[in-house]
Design goal:
Elements: E1 3-5, E2 12-14, H1 22-40, H2 49-56, H3 60-68, E3 82-83, E4 90-91, H4 98-124, H5 129-142
Antiparallel strand pairs: 1-2, 3-4
Helix pairs in contact: 1-2
The chain binds zinc ion (2 copies).
The site of one zinc ion has 8 residues, from α1.
C-alpha cells in the first residue's frame, strides 16, 4: 500500500482512493452536511458563499471545493459562485469562466499551429536525400 500525505493536514496515511486522511475526510463530510443542511432551508437557497461560511463556520475554500466536486450544484443554488482562476469573474463550475476557457483554448490552438508550421519548415530544410546519393556516386568514381 502506498503512503500519502493528507492534502489538508499533511498527516501520513494509507488510502487507495482519497487524497485526505480519515480525520479530515470526516471533518469535510461534517462540513458538507452543515453546508447542505443550511442550503436546504428555503430561505437560504440564495445565500452566497461568504454568507454560508459565516452561518456554518465552514471555510469558503472548502465550500468552493464542494462546488468544484459538483457536490453542490449552482443549478440548485443560484448564488453559489466563486472567482475564475484567471480573471476573477464569478463562475459556477470548473476553474475558468467561459471567456477565459475560450481564450485559453484559442491560445493553445495557435501554439499548436505555430508548432506545426515550425515542424514543416524544419522538414523542408532537412538535407535533401539526393545529395547523399550523389556523394556516393562521386566516391565510387573516385576509387
Ligand atoms: Zn488530514
Ligand atoms: Zn475568467
Amino acid at each position: 500500500m502506498e503512503l500519502k500525505n493528507c492534502e489538508s493536514c499533511g498527516a501520513v496515511f494509507v488510502d487507495p482512493v482519497r487524497n485526505i486522511c480519515r480525520d479530515c475526510y470526516y471533518k469535510e463530510e461534517e462540513a458538507f452536511q452543515k453546508v447542505y443542511r443550511f442550503l436546504s432551508q428555503k430561505k437560504n437557497r440564495e445565500a452566497t458563499i461568504p454568507e454560508i461560511s459565516k452561518a456554518t463556520g465552514v471555510e469558503e475554500e472548502l465550500i468552493i471545493k464542494f462546488l468544484k466536486q459538483k457536490r453542490l450544484r449552482a443549478s440548485e443554488f443560484p448564488k453559489l459562485t466563486y472567482p475564475c482562476e484567471r480573471c476573477g469573474v464569478p463562475i459556477v463550475e470548473g476553474r475558468l469562466c467561459g471567456d477565459c476557457a475560450r481564450d485559453l483554448e484559442q491560445t493553445l490552438s495557435l501554439q499548436l499551429e505555430a508548432e506545426r508550421i515550425r515542424e514543416e519548415k524544419r522538414k523542408q530544410h532537412e538535407p535533401v536525400y539526393y545529395t547523399i546519393t550523389k556523394d556516393k556516386h562521386k566516391r565510387k568514381r573516385d576509387r
